[in-house]
From TrEMBL:
InterPro entries: HATC_C_dom, IFN-induced_PKR_regulator, RNaseH-like_sf. It comes from Macrosiphum euphorbiae (potato aphid). One of its GO terms (molecular function) is protein dimerization activity. Pfam families: Dimer_Tnp_hAT (PF05699). SUPFAM superfamilies: Ribonuclease H-like (SSF53098). This is HAT C-terminal dimerisation domain-containing protein.
Amino acid sequence: MWFQKIFNVLSPLSTLLQTRDLDILAGVNSINDAKNLIQELRKNDSIMEYLIKEVNIFIKENYGFEFSEFKTIRIRRKKKMSNEENVDECIKDPIEKFKVETVLGSLDIILSNLNQYFNDTTIGVMKDLALFSKKRIIEIKKNHKSLPDDSFVVFCKVYGTFVDQETLKAEFLKFCNVYELFEKTTILPEYFHVSDKSDTESISSFEEETDQEQEFELPKRKQINPINIGSLKTIFKVFQNGGLGNTFPSLDAALRISLTIPLSSASTERSFSKLKIIKSRLRTTMSQARLEDLMVISCEQDIVDEMDHEEILHKFAANSITLTKYLI
């Protein structure tokens, strides 16, 4: 029951931080909320009363279980040397002992780890990285004053050897102004030359007829991909496709550094986590060579999507007459 209460706080945070396309600012807020909730549990003096009440309810609802009360352990008397003045004060009450060693002990470990992994510097860098998102870029383009005055301060403190704060801030504001323009040029438009109103009307009428004929099949260009607003990868692709590295050198360095930080490159770690599942489940059911091939396919999804599946199928079917019969 106690650990379930802790998991109710930490599980949503863990799930959010493992999201493929994480909104970093939302992650920062969730981390701070989790810290505050754990600290509130730590300061709550009536936590043991709550736990005892929950245990009693559980015992009443489940008659098949037997529970023994905490036993009072006799305190061992240690021999005191002549020059010793301090005496160890042991906890006699078993409930108080459980509270100190288990309840408060677990909370102290959790808080210590949260503060270790998400200290002020880490949180500061995360907040600065949150600016490298489509949502924030569009927001700042509409109103330059919405960019915080202390933006990139912590990031430049950590990586000041490569990036200057004022230069980075100025280049980022200029990039916000041209981002949507370069984003549109990453894919060719449906029409290059729409000269006048009549052409526009004819094209729109043609599109309406096509939509009626293909009611359930939309063109790929019209499909909107639900890209989260916190993706660094999308911003960097637009930046590189536009060849903006020489135009904004400080921003180029900042984006490259950001993509090497575990927070933004966690997709690789997720791939290896998936590999663990594949290895544990499939290890005893297939040969090593096939297992390795499946692991590569699982990791390199981008490359697999670009391959010609029909050609692969034909090569596989050519291995035997039976496969050719059923696959081709």
